[in-house]
Amino acid sequence: SSSADSSADLYGRHRRVLPDWLALYYDEPIELTHGEGRHVWGADGTKYLDFFGGILTTMTAHALPEVTKAVAEQAGRIIHSSTLYLDRPMVELAERVAALSGIPDARVFFTTSGTEANDTALLLASVYRNSNAILAMRNSYHGRSFSAVGITGNRAWSPTSLTPLQTLYVHGGVRTRGPYAHLDDAEFVAACVADLEDLLGHGRPPAALIAEPVQGVGGFTSPPDGLYAAFREVLSARGVLWISDEVQTGWGRTGDHFWGWQAHAASGPPDMLTFAKGIGNGMSIGGVVARAEVMNCLDANSISTFGGSPVTMAAGLANLTYLLEHDLQGNARRVGGLLLERLRAACAGVACVREVRGRGLMLGIELCEPGTDRPSPERATAVLEAARAGGLLIGKGGGHSTSVLRIAPPLSLTVAEAEEGAAILERALQAV
Ligand code: PMP
Asked: Domains in the chain: how many in total?
């Protein structure tokens, strides 16, 4: 059709004017024109069930009327900067985020992205501790700025090892392959703690350790129970701060908990947490929550012109209200639990599936070469294409290679949609 031709043409123009490293999904990338609930439509009229937009932008639902209305009303009144004038929606959202954060004496700083949030957390930690040494997890993803790339252990997303930080990478993210693969949970935790203690013997005392409670881009992998609690014991004895990157795990996505760090609650709340992505339901909001003592350690001005913009804050307030009033965390737990069951059933007997895992509406399927342990990025790409042909959008990720299918729908997913998506995915897996 002519609209399909025009998307192909747009892709040609995209490739001529945008960077080569801005890689899109699919051989023929999709131009999305509108969305509603858990569905999106391509320019050629194709309707897709969206099992990935939830983690990117759309935490609750596409075109949520409450958010659209709040944005339009605020945009019609005033869009200004929160940096020089009082910003009522920002104060209100900050109060709500501080209260929800679990961090005592919390202060909130709003940014425009997860990258900028993590950058701010690194700045705060470095100044507070007078050290630019940062501990980060292998296989981690924390953003695209120079310093965020410098704490990103996932080689597929870290174009340089040059960094303004002194980064020490800690084991603990993945152990499906490599030297720790044969260990049980307790042995793995002990080995990682020994590795951490060994690293602490080198160089400056680190400012902080930053970790994702569930590694997102790295393929939805969780550390074994007890690992982060054990790490924190070692680190807090030395005054090293804990930064929880909740950009993917925040706001109830993992079902059982509102924040990812709560799955490791034996160690108490982190010193700082960072958030972004879906809280604005597509409007660009990121931020840092820190204990006041840490947040207030800067003695120079530091502003983000668009961070806390009233129009994004209005979206955040409306979205958060919807999320809480409709108990979408509970929905993530219930519908996510059912979806995990369906996916496990769909994958039983599929030779290229190595593991089906996850919590809430953050589920991963790791693919391998049948009968081996070797990751299969080719199969992951093929399943993505087959699912698209069946009307389902999913994501991919993974550290060693991009061999994990990632499933993260908007948190309002219904049971019927979960079942429909699982059926499409089952056919896609079987076709591949
Ligand atoms: N941290 C994590 C855990 C992320 O998944 C991402 C984005 N994929 C970021 C930080 C960076 O967020 P942004 O793309 O908004 O800069």
From this structure: 2
